[in-house]
Amino acid sequence: MGLDHVRSEIEHMRVQVGRQRKEILQLQRAGISTAAAELMLQRMLAKIEGLCDERDRLKKEQGGPTKGRVLGGRSW
Fold first, then answer.
1. Residue 68 has what pLDDT?
2. 3-state class (DSSP) for residue 50
3. In which band, very low, low, confident or very high, does the pLDDT at 63 lie, cut at 50, 70 and 90?
4. Dihedrals φ, ψ of 47, to 5°?
5. How far, in Å, CA of 76 to CA of 71, rounded?
6. 4 — phi, psi (to 5°)?
7. How far apart are CA 18 and CA 14, in angstroms?
8. Residues contacting 16, CB < 8 A, separation 6+
9. What domain range is 28 assigned to?
10. Cα dist. 43→4, 36, 48, 59, 69 in Å?
């Protein structure tokens, strides 16, 4: 998986988490049990954490011109 793919997957999952949270609120307002939905939300959040770890690992491997510098500024 490439860095761009991981980043887009993280963004996609974050959008889905927002939708899931809204759905949970709607269920709660209707007085319907949200246990299963909350478990699914926790699994989604865990997947996002894993993707963020993968993204950070890929960024570290990739390096870049600003490594060791603040915002690509001077190296002194």
1. 59
2. helix
3. confident
4. -65, -40
5. 13
6. -65, -40
7. 6
8. 44
9. 3-59
10. 23, 11, 9, 24, 36
The residue type at 40:
M
Does some domain include residue 51?
yes
Specify whether the CB–CB gap between 37 and 20 falls below 8 A: yes
Question: Exposed, middle or buried: residue 72 (CB in 10 Å: 0-12, 13-18, 19+)?
Answer: exposed
What total number of domains does the chain contain? 1
| Coil, strand or helix at 65 | coil
pTM of the complete model: 0.77
Q: Using one digit for the tens of pLDDT, what is the confidence trace for 26-54?
A: 999 999 999 999 999 999 999 999 999 99
| pLDDT (average), residues 3-15 | 96
